[in-house]
Specification:
By secondary structure, the protein is of the alpha+beta class. The protein contains 3 helices and 18 strands. The longest helix is centred in the last third of the chain and has 28 residues.
Length: 297
């Protein structure tokens, strides 16, 4: 096949792929549809006191969008896995929006407002909900280019204003003892308190034989009461002949600091160590031989 035919074939394939991409009716909401100014709202409850919350929503499309708001109960489990809960009198039933349905013009920004009215004698320690924002073009029959529709979720977390415990602990540290040029480190962190928080985490790696030291931060994750989250990090730039000290630190929501240290070696480090021991052994053997010869003279 000639170079010109290859170029023509590649160009046609590119056009087909672009046509497939732009013919899609649904795209990521945050990028090409509607956007919200926050994805998480955290409120503290007080006995006998109702609450309010709000967030901004903007239509980033070129057509009018019909918006529908609905509050749903959720459960957040280990590894922050989300499950929708279908209950009739759950915490989501306490939420009332000023408007559940409205139309946004292209480029329009609107404030979504809601009240949370608690039942009498209801004591809230921790409740988890999500505001589902559904949107679709007002007139889907009018061909105005790609149709953009979708859903956006805004987390709503309620916790008690009573004395809060944000204690946490490291349950498991996993890493390979013998590594290649890269290594994965994972830490399972558990929330032992009654309020969610983001632990401050840091990982440092150092070579005891040199002055080389690096500090790396884990990604930030909320850890909810009674749940666990695995923090992972890939360490790169290691040597197969290296010897490294790994030290990690986690600070919980109470400010308590936990530090632990471990060691990893390059997978060829034992060979290097064996060669060093052999050289040292030969040196000692020759040194003993020289001393014996000197003692005879």
């Amino acid at each position: 096949m000639s170079m010109e035919k290859r170029k023509l074939k590649f160009f046609c394939l590119l056009i087909v792929l672009l046509g497939f991409f732009f013919s899609s009716e649904k795209v990521l909401a945050d990028n090409a549809g509607l956007s919200v100014d926050t994805s998480l709202i955290m409120l503290r409850t007080e006995p006998g006191k109702d609450l309010q919350f709000s967030f901004n929503i903007k239509n980033q499309t070129a057509v009018e969008q019909v918006v529908h708001l609905e509050e749903k109960d959720i459960l957040i489990g280990n590894e922050n896995e989300l499950t929708f809960v279908d209950v009739t009198q759950g915490p989501s039933s306490w939420v009332a929006f000023e408007q559940n349905d409205f139309v946004l013009k292209p480029g329009q920004l609107q404030v979504v407002k809601a009240d949370i009215k608690f039942p009498k004698n209801e004591k809230i320690s921790n409740a988890q909900m999500m505001t589902m924002v559904s949107f679709a073009p007002e007139d889907a029959s009018v061909p105005q280019g790609p149709k953009v529709s979708g859903n956006i979720g805004v987390y709503l977390i309620l916790s008690s204003s009573d004395a809060q415990n944000a204690a946490g602990k490291v349950e498991k540290l996993a890493y390979l003892k013998f590594v290649d040029k890269t290594a994965d480190v994972s830490v399972v962190y558990a929330n032992g308190g009654n309020v969610q928080f983001v632990p401050q985490s840091k990982l440092s790696i150092a070579n005891p034989f040199t002055t080389e030291r690096r500090e790396i931060s884990f990604e930030n994750h909320f850890v909810f009461p009674g749940k666990k989250v695995t923090f992972t990090k890939n360490l790169s730039g290691l040597s197969v002949f290296g010897f490294y000290e790994i030290r990690y630190s986690f600070k919980d929501g109470n400010g308590q600091l936990l530090e632990k240290t471990g060691y990893v070696v390059g997978k060829l480090f034992p060979i290097l160590l064996l060669i060093a021991l052999l050289v040292f052994g030969i040196f000692i053997k020759k040194l003993i031989k020289i001393r014996k010869e000197n003692s005879k003279t």
